[in-house]
Amino acid sequence: MLNHILTFLIFLVIGIEIRDGLSHVKAAILPSLAALGGMVFPALIFIALSHDNSSWAVVMPTDVVLAIGALSLLGRRVNPAVKLFLLTLAVADDFFSLVAIGILFRSDLELASAFYTIGAASIGALIPKRDLVLKFLAPLVSYLVVPIYIFINLFARIEVSSFVTNTSISIVISRVIGKAVGITLVTFLLIRFTKLTLPVALHMKDVAGIGLLCGMGMTVSLVIAEITVKSDLALNQVRSGLFLAALLSGLLGLLWLKSSPVAK
Asked: Which of 77, 144, 172, 173 is the most exposed place for a label (fewest CB within 10 A)?
């Protein structure tokens, strides 16, 4: 029951953020398309590495709370344009992840699970006075709900032996490399061959750092895992892979952005 309540609150906030983050359509086009690249590339890499594994969808979502939280560790070094692009990209990523859950996994999605995920996000998107609700809920979810959710679904169940399995290693490679390459490459191609441009004060080196941070994925990925992965053994392997990928992506992303002249 506690897990369902936490899931509902997380997706409620996701729904509010999606409605607000994608309200400025023109500014959201580039990061939204970059988000798609950051979902497709990891999935393709995972399928190539572990083609008979049903866990491929867990490598697609980005965890906005973890990514923004990691970015905040840079303090005043953070380029505001980096934070805005990352936030918009992660919100678009959440939206596409919800679409994927609803379409690709509808046969596995039980009525209760549908309410706590897609239903909660829909309620969040329709809530009036979203700014007031988000002002109260966002800190609560970021600093209390998400840590408890991750502890319950990750640290309390993780097993050391699952860190070196093909599934966990495939998840790490797919998320760390796939997210960075997908987001960076798609952004480069779009600004090179279309009329889309990077926001002022944002450079391609920053986008690469954003791509690395986006390899951090826990909450939505864990929800997808709970829906699609049937065995406890496979689920432990997924949890281990997500944990390692989040650590490595966060570290690499922070080191990359810290070295950027724009961030100093």
From this structure: 144
**What angle do the packed helices 25-49 and 166-173 form, to 10 degrees?**
150
Residues 6+ away with beta carbon under 8 Å from 44: 178
Domain range enclosing 72: 2-263
Q: What is the pLDDT of residues 50-59, one digit of tens each?
A: 988 888 999 9
Q: How far apart are CA 182 and CA 187, in angstroms?
A: 8
For 128, other C-beta atoms within 10 Å of its C-beta total 6
Both tokens of 262, joined, read 């724009």
Per the structure, how many domains does the chain have? 1
How far, in Å, CA of 9 to CA of 19, rounded?
16
pTM of the model: 0.87
Q: For position 63, what pLDDT does the model report?
A: 87
Cβ atoms of residues 229 and 55 within 8 Å: yes
Total Cβ atoms within 10 A of residue 203: 15
Determine which helix (DSSP H) or strand (DSSP E) holds 141, and give its type and residue range.
none
Which is more confidently placed, 107 or 180?
A: 180
| pLDDT tens profile 240-253 | 999 999 999 999 99
Which residue, 151, 184, 154, 155, is CA-closest to 252?
184
The structure tokens 């509902």 sit at 8
